Amino acid sequence: MLQINILYVGNIKDKFYAEAVQEYEKRLSAFCKVKNIELKEEKPPENPSDAEIALVIRKEGDRLLEAIPKKGYKIALCVEGTQISSEELAKKMASVTVSGDSEITFIIGGAFGMDERVKKAANYRLSISKMTFTHRMMRVILAEQIYRALNILSGGNYHK
Amino acid sequence: MLQINILYVGNIKDKFYAEAVQEYEKRLSAFCKVKNIELKEEKPPENPSDAEIALVIRKEGDRLLEAIPKKGYKIALCVEGTQISSEELAKKMASVTVSGDSEITFIIGGAFGMDERVKKAANYRLSISKMTFTHRMMRVILAEQIYRALNILSGGNYHK
Fold first, then answer.
1. A with B: how many residue pairs have Cβ under 8 Å apart?
2. Nearest Cα to A148, choosing from A137, A136, A160, A135?
3. Does A83 reach chain B within 8 Å, measured CB to CB?
4. ipTM value
5. Could you give the angle at the alpha carbon of B99 between the alpha carbons of B98 and B102, nearest 5°?
6. What are B56-92's pLDDT values in tens digits?
7. Distance of CA B155 to the CA centre of its chain
8. For residue A15, which residues of chain B lie inside 8 Å, CB to CB?
9. Which domains are seen in chain B, by residue range?
10. pLDDT tens digits along B9-40
């Protein structure tokens, strides 16, 4: 069975996002195993300077690099990545598994963005939107897109 | 005070999405008045044909056209619209209000998409992503983006 890992900085504070993620992951369990790897968020001082923000990104980057599974295909979510449709994400996931990888790790950075080293460590950079979303909302969007992709691949009629 | 209307087909079934929308609309009330205009969703038969889907879109389109406020600037959310960043959305909203419109209506179509006539009736077509989202999730994303835009314009430090 396909193993999906969601590697993520920070916990989900908002109850509604936590419930939404839970719901999609429950539905996902019909198609794959899902493992959440939640890493500690770095707390910047109030009104952080650019250097302080860079430090947060670097420290969170260290944690992400250490936690990235050695095996499998890695997809980093970042705004400068490639935008693809839900159907194309489904095809992408199919081609990864056909090539022999039975493990796909999606990586979501922290509130201030993702370290360049993490982006380089990934096999693919995926952009969901030109808009900036909260990284917590991103986790819901990602769970729904993975569910949508696996539903497309299984010939399901999920569409809303 | 700026008036934001969210014109929308279908109710929010999932409790977590309803709560998320509620939370962002509460925060939005510091910046603007928000009015939700929720229209009845058309129920297609099981496994609808293309013609049946087209009929759903047309009927929902009739309702949207009737409900669109006469006044103000209208922004239709559709996948073939223009993608802009959150900062650009903020600038767009600022330029609309500077030009004298104190009312902006965002329009979200139903589960099967938006009638072409509605898209034509809008002043602007906005695309959030190449990916397909549920139209319920779209309402959360939109509320968060409007909040983010108004926060940017007010010089706030909301970023996550």
1. 80
2. A160
3. yes
4. 0.88
5. 75
6. 999 999 999 999 999 999 999 999 999 999 999 999 9
7. 24
8. 16, 19
9. 2-153 (3.40.1280.10)
10. 988 888 899 999 999 999 999 999 999 999 99
